[in-house]
């Protein structure tokens, strides 16, 4: 196994030449198609720009409108509505949980609705009441801004509360976060005709991911076409999660880009390793916990890094183009205008491939990302 020089630390043992060549060949093919003037129908024939198909839980390629800019390709359907989601506040494994067995430890680590460190006092981390979240989601659906995915992320612990607030005016697309004992054990709530489940999110240990991926490949699971994103526990072996899920689409990875506990957030090196592996192993990923803004920052309360949506998009695009050396700097960049210039200068094929891998960015505000993108000149003819 061998890695290219200039890549993020620790990537050499996680990336083979085969994976890198495959990613470069795919990008080269997309570039050639774009240069040849690919029609809208032809663009939809290759999986260069994917989105959730809420009607069947699978993936469907979206046509690339000829008039869309690279920035618009990057931003279309990017922002998931995380207004119902509190921060990840799992307790450490050494806080008496291991004595109760691995099941109890997983339940404690997956719980995201009971802050223990006072962070719930911060407006940045306070979840919306269900009534307010549903009303905002309905308003966003009516406006139908292209930057929004119109997927409402809902912790399973609030599933019943959400159902009581739906009035049947058309189905709501929901990404369900499995944060209860039943969900962690693999059980999911019964379907409701007012809701279309677009995907599931859960946490898992490396050994559990290996089992899930093996069962998926043998056909023992996955018959229902469920899209599941796994957030790996940050423990020994967690960076191998992407390798484990290689070839198991629509199973993917969930990356945490911020939160009240600094140990939950990967640094730029670790995040660069994960993104590089996702691109070269063709493993989709979603991002959660970051600020609803283009560029990241250092959390003044915890000192932990927070990654904005342009940080992730451009780092992914850099790997797509084979420029691994720029990944840490792009993830750490805090100048939104500089990042916006880079986004506008991407090749359309690079933008397409980027969105094939980076599927969504969860934000508690659905208005702030759109307004900032407009101020940065990224939206083109899209109306705010």
TrEMBL record:
Q: Which domain of life is it from?
A: Bacteria
Positions of region (Disordered): 1-26, 85-126
User: Where is composition skewed (Basic residues) in this entry?
Assistant: 14-26
Compositionally biased tracts (Basic and acidic residues): 91-110
Name of the protein in its database record: HpcH/HpaI aldolase/citrate lyase domain-containing protein
Q: Which organism is it from?
A: Streptomonospora arabica
């Amino acid at each position: 196994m061998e890695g290219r020089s200039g890549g993020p630390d620790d990537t050499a043992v996680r990336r083979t030449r085969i994976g890198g060549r495959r990613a470069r060949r795919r990008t080269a093919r997309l570039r050639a198609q774009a240069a040849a003037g690919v029609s809208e129908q032809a663009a939809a024939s290759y999986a260069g720009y994917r989105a959730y198909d809420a009607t069947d839980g699978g993936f469907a390629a979206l046509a690339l409108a000829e008039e869309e800019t690279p920035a618009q390709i990057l931003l279309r359907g990017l922002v998931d509505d995380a207004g119902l989601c509190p921060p990840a506040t799992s307790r450490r494994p050494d806080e008496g949980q291991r004595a109760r067995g691995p099941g109890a430890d997983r339940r404690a680590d997956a719980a995201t609705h009971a802050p223990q460190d006072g962070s719930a006092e911060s407006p940045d981390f306070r979840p919306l009441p269900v009534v307010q979240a549903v009303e905002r989601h309905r308003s966003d659906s009516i406006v139908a801004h292209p930057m929004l995915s119109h997927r409402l992320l809902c912790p399973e612990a609030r599933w019943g509360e959400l159902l009581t607030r739906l009035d049947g005016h058309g189905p709501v697309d929901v990404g369900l976060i499995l944060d209860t004992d039943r969900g962690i054990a693999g059980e999911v709530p019964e379907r409701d005709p007012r809701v279309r489940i677009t995907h599931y999110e859960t946490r898992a240990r490396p050994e559990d991911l290996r089992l899930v991926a093996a069962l998926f490949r043998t056909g023992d699971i996955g018959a229902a076409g469920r899209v599941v994103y796994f957030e790996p526990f940050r423990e020994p072996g967690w960076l191998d999660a992407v390798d484990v899920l290689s070839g198991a689409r629509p199973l993917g990875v969930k990356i945490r880009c911020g939160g009240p506990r600094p140990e939950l957030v990967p640094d730029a090196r670790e995040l660069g390793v994960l993104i590089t592996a996702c691109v070269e192993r063709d493993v989709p990923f979603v991002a959660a916990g970051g600020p609803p803004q283009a560029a990241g920052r250092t959390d003044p309360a915890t000192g932990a890094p927070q990654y904005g949506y342009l940080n992730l998009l451009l780092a992914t695009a850099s790997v797509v183009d084979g420029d691994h050396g720029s990944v840490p700097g792009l993830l750490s960049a805090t100048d939104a205008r500089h990042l916006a210039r880079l986004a506008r200068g991407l090749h359309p094929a690079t933008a397409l491939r980027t969105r094939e891998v980076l599927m969504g960015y969860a934000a508690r505000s659905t208005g702030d990302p759109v307004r900032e993108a407009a101020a940065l000149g990224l939206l083109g003819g899209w109306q705010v």
